Amino acid sequence: MKNNRLLLDIGPLVIFFVAYKFADIFWATGLFMGAMMLALGFGWLSEKRLRVMPVITLVLVLFFGGLTLYFKDSTFIKMKPTAIYLLFAMALGGGAVFGQYFLKVVFDGAFEMPDTVWRVLSWRWAGFFVALAVLNELIWRNFSENVWVNFKVFGLLPLTFGFAFANLPLMLKYMKNDDGHVD
Q1: Do 126 and 89 form a contact (C-beta atoms < 8 A)?
Q2: Could you tell me if 51 and 108 lie in one domain?
């Protein structure tokens, strides 16, 4: 099930990239929208539930992708990552302000750590998402569409994995084992 999740998360991005290379941004956008809907459908069939982040992402993909196709203006699809990252940053930061740690919900019990660690992680990820939003804006506004597509596919994902990996030492330090004690 976890392998399916990764494929469903990355598959639409691969389809976007391939469609862009063989056609244009508008074909890529349309196929990306369709692939996102299929991925969410397959996710629901395999897990019998819808995860929150992919649903939010799909809504934004359909909104910005729809605007892109309707107006024949790629600006909208280029702004979509910025909107998603700012929304995630606001949710994580806002949640942390009120003691609600949405990362804890996203990880669905996979990690058991004290709330103080979830708060630190929430703020770190909120800051990271703001940085990604700024970076996306800088790249799409100052470089060619081709550079932006390559950054979206080959830059954002490695940056995200790298940031997640950089947070592992904190998580491992406070993660509770099966008997409820911190390792």
Answers
A1: yes
A2: no
CA gyration radius, the chain? 18
Start-end of H helices in 24-74 = 25-47, 52-71
- pTM listed for this prediction: 0.87
* Residue 165 belongs to some domain of the structure: yes
pLDDT in tens, 23-41: 999 999 999 999 999 999 9
- Domain assignment of residue 4, yes or no: yes
> How far is Cα 126 from Cα 149, in angstroms, rounded to an integer?
24
Token match 């999740």: residue?
Answer: 5
Give tens-digit pLDDT for 120-135.
Answer: 999 999 999 999 999 9
Q: What are phi and psi of 148, to 5 degrees?
A: -65, -45
Centroid of chain to Cα 54 = 8
Residue 69 lies in a domain: no
Residues found in the chain? 183
